[in-house]
Structure formats: C-alpha cells, structure tokens
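Each record in this resource describes a single protein on a pair of labelled lines. An example record follows, reproduced without changes.
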Amino acid sequence: APPATTALAEARGGALPVLVARGADQLPLGTRSDARSSAATLRNYGSLLDAVCGAAPDGVVVVFPTAGYLALAVATWDATGYLAAILKKKLVLVECGDRAETSAALETFRRACDAGRG
C-alpha cells in the first residue's frame, strides 16, 4: 500500500499540506502573534522552507497569517541568506494587495510549474 502522504497528495490533486510543530533546533513553531516574530521562529521557518524547496519537485505555496508577517519573514530571510538559498531552487512570487497583480502572479506560478520551474 502507498504511504499515507502519497494517498493524501493524490486525494488533493497533488497538493500535500505539511504541518510542523518544531524547528530543526527543536524549538516550537507556531504563528501565535506573541511568538511568531522571534528570531528563532523566523530562522526555523526559513530553514524549513529551504529544505522543502530542495525536496519538492515542483511548486511550493506558503501562506502567511498577515501581510506584515510576510514582509517580516522575507526581510529576515533576505538578511540571513535563506531567501538567496530558496531562490536558487524555486521561483518566488509574493502576493501583493492588488487582486489583478495577485492573479497574474498565480498564473505565472501555474505556468512555471507546468514548465517544471515551479
């Protein structure tokens, strides 16, 4: 029988949600507002995303709880080198406040995945 994760991915049309409770350093991960902005949490999310981008054969979608947290994470990962490492593996598209631009970014993401460059 296939592993449960394979069955889940097939049931969801190729999407595989991942839930993670601890970072590489075994510190708890979460998005509660009192802990999510800590340097350790941001570092662990950057490390996790870098690892997932290295392992996933195609596109990776990351959802952030707020636009402010997205901006903080991107700025932190840029300063720590995680963003550069991720950009070597995947195309990075960032949602903005404009619906038309976000739709265009999602279409670009879809085309990149179809071309094997997600």
Remarks:
- The chain has five helices and no strands.
- The longest helix spans residues 39-55.
- The chain has a mean pLDDT of 83.
- The two ends are 29 Å apart (CA to CA).
